[in-house]
Amino acid sequence: MKAVATDQALQPAGRAPGGLVLVQDLVNTATLEKYAERAYPGDLLTDLAAANRWLDGALARWAAANGQTPPALHLSEADLAPLTRFREAVRALAAGHDEQTQTAVQLGAANLSLRIDGDGVVRHGTTASGWRGVAALATGEIMLAQHAGTWSRLKTCRYPVCGVAFYDESRNNSRVWHDVRTCGNRTNLAASRERRRAVAADGSG
Ligand SMILES: [Zn+2]
User: Fold this and answer.
1) Could you tell me the distance, in angstroms and rounded to a whole number, from the CA of residue 65 to the centre of ligand 1?
2) 136 CA to middle of ligand 1, Å?
3) Rg (CA), the chain
4) In angstroms, rounded to a whole number, what is the distance separating the alpha carbons of residues 160 and 200?
5) Distance from Cα 167 to the centre of ligand 1, integer Å
6) Which residues contact 126 (CB under 8 A, 6 or more apart)?
């Protein structure tokens, strides 16, 4: 299915809390290797109109979670490739909680803006435009989550061709599939098939 009809790609159970939802939304603009889930809407960052539709919705959700008005960010054609690279760097970062990630993303220091609002809450925004603005807001959320201890709960599905980002709300932070009924079952099925093959090979040899 190539048509991109919505402003959101797959949204698995387990939404990230607060502004961290922007990071989850960004990773989920595509799955790995165009994994063909029934509702898979394609890679939202390959089409400019779809990418901006997604961004408008994502910024509205992010701003609502943070109690601010959505920033006026728009993507141009030239933003799509670097934003896609940033997305995959974030996906790798979320996948590598247990090991050292080889991802290094350098963002200009001037991209992030901070202010103390009238309600006494410090909020972040961005002075950048295009993909750099999106990256600055998302990076700010990753930093906040790392400080709050919630970052280790934002994960990507372990099924190799999926990679969907989900928020693990389980008590012991032990989930590995974005959806155990799809990706968990597929992986377990493949493993049991492999075991049966091994047993059969043993029996014949
Ligand atoms: Zn999955």
Assistant:
1) 25
2) 27
3) 19
4) 26
5) 12
6) 71, 73, 111, 112, 113, 132, 133, 136, 137
Residue by residue, what is the 3-state secondary structure of 66-135?
A: HCCCCCCCCCCHHHHHHHHHHHHHHHHHHHCCCCCCCCCCCCCHHHEEEEECCCCCEEEEECCCHHHHHH
Q: What is the pLDDT of residue 203?
A: 67
Could you count the other beta carbons within 10 Å of the beta carbon of residue 26? 27
Centre of ligand 1 from the C-alpha of residue 134, in Å: 25
CB distance 192 to 50 below 8 Å: no
Which structure tokens are listed for 112? 């992030």
Among 6-20, 109-123, 135-149, 153-167, which is the least confidently predicted range? Answer: 6-20
Distance CA 43, CA 194 (A): 32
Which tokens in the block code for residue 136? 């600055």
Q: Taking residues 157-177, report their average pLDDT.
A: 88
159 CA → ligand 1 middle, Å: 5
Q: Give distance in angstroms: CA of 204 to centre of ligand 1.
A: 36
Q: Tell the residue number behind the tokens 């909680």, with chain if given.
A: 97
| C-beta of residue 75 within 8 angstroms of C-beta of residue 131 | yes
168 Cα–ligand 1 center, Å: 13
Query: In what helix (H) or strand (E) does residue 46 lie, and over which residues does it extend?
Result: none
